[in-house]
DNA sequence: CTGAAAGCGCTTACAG
DNA sequence: CTGAAAGCGCTTACAG
């Protein structure tokens, strides 16, 4: 393949000048630059990334770590981040943990990222004390998205999960519901992934505020998936005194709830109201009320923040405050049947 | 950071031996290997990827190109491929085209992939004649997934889209439908991305086989999204003589159709039947009949095939034949109202 | 089984 | 503004 000295020879300059010209450094005369660009074009030259990286000390790559690409929130974050990174000519190295704790361990504690990327975006990745130490030891810019654990020096992009849950619960309360169930994450399973903890907290706060003591029987754990929400709802329906409303911690769970209710022949919101969090692509299609968050905004903001950090610019101000959420009332919530 | 000569010094061997020992080459004595491993561990040494790549000539990375990560099929393919690649210790470079034709052009014609990856997986990426030439010029192993255009020497992982569409259409015909609409891709928009062309073909074949001449008015173009399916369905409902059944080219479009029908106050399948293709994660939850394909199988198989090619092994036999599809009848299809 | 040395293809001070 | 030379940190023939 053609190398930098081929271009240098054709353009009649040194390789150093070719390198400078091609990277757009200011210290090259306009005529020289044109000659070099022309030569490079004629030869179809592209610099070898490995060589540039070794010599230059930067990789031009950013690692994006997600728990599960097939969940709406994560795919959307990655897609938005990818667009921003592509524009800045960074490569996106994808690490999908896929629920494999071992993959998480290997990634964090094996220096796998070490000389491989310039920065890291950790999306909803559980971090224990030793993980935080490992990640800090990377000594590179990073951001967390939707993460419960703060990493010193890393901006944290997120919504206010407690507030979002309060909004959802308050909506149900305002409609007149008293027996409100909650479907959320499994504490044992999800470790420091705190989203579900905060959403549960908001749910309880909103209930207590209006004098309702949260009923542990109505607070069920499930995976953050359609199937998880469906199973949890089936369990709720077996109670002697089932709820009149369900607040699911994400839209995928809420859609699972809708499926179970439909199969059980119950009408929504006639018999039971359902609300989620996210505003999933399909939430509108199934008429699901929800507390919307923008996964795309979070992905974009996380990428932009990282890019600024890589240029030693001050982090985006917006990365300091939680992103907004918004109640969207569709057909899945309504007043309970007159008691 | 610690380099290979630090390890060599501590272990009392040459850097060549460290390199061999750490990569598990067979030409190292067991005792030496132990000494080297021990030294590397003590120093927390990991080889610099850039240096290894430059010296070794392989990047250990694979490019995965998808049109849109946020569509179920593509996210699922990538997730499955990622798992296989991670296991083989390959990095996954994600290229999400996001509908940006310019991104596709840049990727294919700019030698961007050139010395950056060892192999390429092209998922549903439109390829014109000059694109095929560019991709072949890469001179590296590759596979296509769900692609209409064959690249010489590259295995093509796919289902039989014509047959899948026939299955869906025949199901509706068997239920007694005659006015069957089809919602599929936009020819102008999607170029050589042939999935929708094949599915339209299967739809027409199945109709003609039972003596029904496809009605162009019932064959509407839309984007492969929920919103696209919803809008297309709204258009169908405006016809003087609307269809009694809709075959949507993918489940996301079908779910959009369901949404529009629900909003229009029509019952499914009482007034109109709907069937899609995919078996999307949520198809079960919304009771959508569909022709299932396994995106995960395709992603896994594509990755495995690539890995074998990189080892100069014969490609997996399964990569030679279309993967199976399967009709799944749920609640969204039924006989038309007695005329 | 192991080592000395060349080489992978760039970028970066350092001079000029 | 430009070039000669060193160096980035590995791997790979080639010897032995």
The rounded Rg of chain A comes to: 25 Å
What share of residues are in beta strands of chain A? 5-15%
For the biggest sheet of chain A, the summary is:
6 strands, mixed
Structural class of chain A: alpha/beta
Distance between the termini of chain A: 79 Å
With strands numbered from the N-terminus, the spatial order across the biggest sheet of chain A is: 7-6-8-9-10-11
Secondary-structure element order of chain A, as H and E? HHHHEHEHEHEEHEHHEHEHEHEHE
Shape of chain A: elongated
Q: Please estimate the helix content of chain A.
A: 40-55%
How would you state the average pLDDT of chain A, rounded? 92
What quaternary form is this? homodimer
Q: Unreliable stretches of chain A, pLDDT < 50, 5 or more residues?
A: none
Q: How many DSSP E strands of chain A?
A: 11
Largest interface by Cβ-Cβ < 8 Å: A-B, 49 and 49 residues
Structural write-up:
- The structure is a homodimer of 339-residue chains.
- By secondary structure, chain A is an alpha/beta fold.
- Chain A is 44% helix and 14% strand.
- A six-stranded mixed β-sheet of chain A has the order 7-6-8-9-10-11, sandwiched between helices. In chain A, strands 2-1-3-4-5 form a five-stranded parallel β-sheet, with helices on one face.
- In chain A, helix 2 packs across helix 3 (30-43) and helix 11 (226-237) packs across helix 12 (251-263).
- The model of chain A has no long low-confidence stretch (mean pLDDT 92).
- At the A-B interface, helix 4, helix 5, strand 2, helix 12 and helix 13 of A face helix 4, helix 5, strand 2 and helix 12 of B.
- The structure holds a DNA duplex (16 and 16 nucleotides).
């Amino acid at each position: 393949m053609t190398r930098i000295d081929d271009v240098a020879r054709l353009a009649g300059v040194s390789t150093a000048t070719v390198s400078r010209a091609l990277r757009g450094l200011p210290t090259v005369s306009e005529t020289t630059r044109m000659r070099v660009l022309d030569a490079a074009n004629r030869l179809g030259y592209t610099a070898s990334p490995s060589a540039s990286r070794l010599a230059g000390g930067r990789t031009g790559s950013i690692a994006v770590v997600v728990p599960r690409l097939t969940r709406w929130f994560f795919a959307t974050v990655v897609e938005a981040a990818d667009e921003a990174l592509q524009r800045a000519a960074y490569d996106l190295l994808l690490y999908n943990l896929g629920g494999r704790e071992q993959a998480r361990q290997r990634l964090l504690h094996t220096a796998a990222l070490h000389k491989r990327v310039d920065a890291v975006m950790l999306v909803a990745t559980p971090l224990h004390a030793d993980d935080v130490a490992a990640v800090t030891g990377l000594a590179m810019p990073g951001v967390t998205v939707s993460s419960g654990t703060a990493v010193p020096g890393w901006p944290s992009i997120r919504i206010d999960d407690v507030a979002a849950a309060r909004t959802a619960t308050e909506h149900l309360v305002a409609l007149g519901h008293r027996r409100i169930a909650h479907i959320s994450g499994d504490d044992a399973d999800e470790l420091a992934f705190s989203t579900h903890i905060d959403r549960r907290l908001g749910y309880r706060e909103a209930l207590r505020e209006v004098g309702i003591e949260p009923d542990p029987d109505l607070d069920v754990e499930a995976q953050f998936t359609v199937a998880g929400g469906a199973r949890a709802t089936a369990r709720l329906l077996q109670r002697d005194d089932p709820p009149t409303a369900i607040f699911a911690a994400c839209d995928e769970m809420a859609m699972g709830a809708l499926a179970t209710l439909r199969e059980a022949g119950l009408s929504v919101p006639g018999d039971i109201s359902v609300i989620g969090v996210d505003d999933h692509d399909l939430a509108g299609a199934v008429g699901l009320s929800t507390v919307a968050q923008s996964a795309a905004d979070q992905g974009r903001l996380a990428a932009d923040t990282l890019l600024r950090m890589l240029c030693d610019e001050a982090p985006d101000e917006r990365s300091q405050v939680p992103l907004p959420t918004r109640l969207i009332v569709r057909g899945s919530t309504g007043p309970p049947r007159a008691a």
